[in-house]
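Question (not urgent): is this output format expected?
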Amino acid sequence: MSRAKVVLVRCENYDEPQVQRSIEKGVALLGIRNQLEVEKVLIKPNCLSPKSPPLCVTTHPSVVRAVVRIFKPSCQEITVADQPGGAHGEKALQTSGIKSVADGEGVRVTTFDREGYERVELAGLLKDGYFAKAYLQSDLVVSLPKLKTHAQTKFTGAVKNVFGAVPLKTRRLAHSLAELLSEAVVDIYSFSPPALNIMDAVWAMEGDGPSQGQPRYLGLILLSEDAVALDAVASYLIGFDPMEIHTTRIAHVRGLGVGDLQEIETIGEDPDAYRKRFKPPMNLFMKNAKLLSWLLYSISSVKPKFYRRHCDRCEGCVDVCSVDAISMNPYPLIDYDRCIECFSCAEICGQDAIKPKRMFHLPLLGKLTGG
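Got this back:
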C-alpha cells in the first residue's frame, strides 16, 4: 500500500492556457480540490535571485499565474511571497516576472522581509529562530519549487523551497554548517510543511545549480501533498537515487514524508517515460567511484571565482556569506582560506559575477588547464 501520491502531468511549454490545463488536471488527479477552499492562501514560488524566466533559476511566472487562478474563485486573500537571497528581493520578483503576474491578477505580492518574522523554536541544529509571518498566518501554503540541481545539496526541490521562509541570518547559519546543511534544511521544513507542492519541471536545471547551471527540458508539472515524496520522484526523473539526496533521506528517516519510491504511488504520466540523466554539479563528481574521478578530486577543488567585468558592486555576496569570507575593496575579494564552498554568493549574484570554477592544487596542472 502506497503512503504518498505524486501526480505527473504533461506540460509541453509555458503557454499559459496549457500550463493552466495541466495544473488543473493535476489538482483533479490528486483529488484535493475541496481542501483548497480557504480564506487566506500563501503561494510561495522559488525566486532565488533576479534572473529572467528562460534561465530556469526561478519558478516560471506562468505556473504562478495558473495557481493564482485556481484559488481566485474561492479564496478571499491570496498572497504571493518569497525572500530572495542577498539585497535583491524586490528586483528578483520583478525580473522573474512574478510581480507582473501577481499585479496583473490583482493579488498581493511581497517579500517575507517586508512582512516580518515571528520568533519560533526550530528543531535540531538551529534551535530557536524566526519564521515568515506571511507564511505562518496563512490558512494554506502552496509551494512552487523549481526542479534544479544544487552545488551543495545535489538536488533542490520542494523540501528546500521552505528554506526561503526563514531570514537571511538563519540561512547564513545553515550554510555555515557545511556538510550539515541538509540537516538544517530539514529542520526548517519540519517546522511548517506546505499543504500542497506544485513543481515546475517543464524546463529544469542541470549542472551547477541552483543558479549557474544549464536549462534542461523535461515537459512536466509535478504535484503532491508530500514534499518529500515529490522530491523523491523528481530526483529519480533526473537520474539520481532519491536516498542519495540527503534532504530526502533525512526527512524520510524522521517520518516527515515518504522518500522510498516503493511506497509512493505515481499518478498520470509514467516517470520512466520521462527519465533523463542530468549533469550533476561540478563539485559532486567525487561521488563517482571511478579512479579517474577520485584522482581529479584529490588534486583539485571547485571554488567561487569572481569576474569583475560583470560586477555592479551591490554587495549581495558580502551580505550572504555565512563565514565572512568576502569583503569589498572596492570590488569583492574572496578569502579562500575562510571559504567553505557553499556557493551562496554565486546563487544570489544577479550579474553572474561569481561562478563555480575548478581550481587545481598542483601548479603544472593549473597552468595546463587554465585553473
